[in-house]
Amino acid sequence: MSSSLVWQSLLAIMLMVVIAYGSRVLGLLVMSHVPLGPYVRRFVDAMSSSVLIAVITPMVVHGDGGTRLAAVAAGAVAIGLRSPLASIAVGMFCAAWWRWWFS
Fold first, then answer.
1. Full-prediction pTM beyond 0.85?
2. Do both 61 and 90 map to the same domain?
3. Domain for residue 88, yes or no?
4. CB within 10 Å: which end of the chain, N or C, has fewer?
């Protein structure tokens, strides 16, 4: 591995660290000056769900049958029981079962 490639990799890693840390610190600084009214509170509460959906959706769309089965089963359990732990367990079981039998 050339020295130039090592330095470029280290620079890229350091830039990612600065951007990730900076976004968190700037978010805290900005939100410390924003009054938390009902609209802002609803917006902040909805952000975590929207980020989760943005991460999960491509995996479900481009995944195999096990991924789709796990997503549907976990969603049904989450809606029915309102238990995140049970929904995660059912999703993992369904994905493992599908891959055990169909792969």
1. no
2. yes
3. yes
4. N
Token couple for 43: 């917006």
Assigned token pair, 87: 């929904």
Higher pLDDT, 34 or 94: 94
Tens digit of each residue's pLDDT (9 = 90 or more) over 21-65? 998 898 888 888 888 889 888 888 888 888 888 988 999 999 999
CA distance 64 to 87: 19
Which helix (DSSP H) or strand (DSSP E) does residue 83 occupy? none
DSSP state of 32: T
Q: What is the DSSP string of 2-26?
A: -HHHHHHHHHHHHHHHHHHHHHHHH
Q: Token match 């549907």: residue?
A: 72
User: Are 18 and 64 within one domain?
Assistant: no
User: What residues make up the domain containing 85?
Assistant: 47-103
Q: What is the Cα–Cα distance from 17 to 4, expressed in whole angstroms? A: 20
Q: How many domains does the chain have?
A: 2
Q: 39 lies in a domain?
A: no
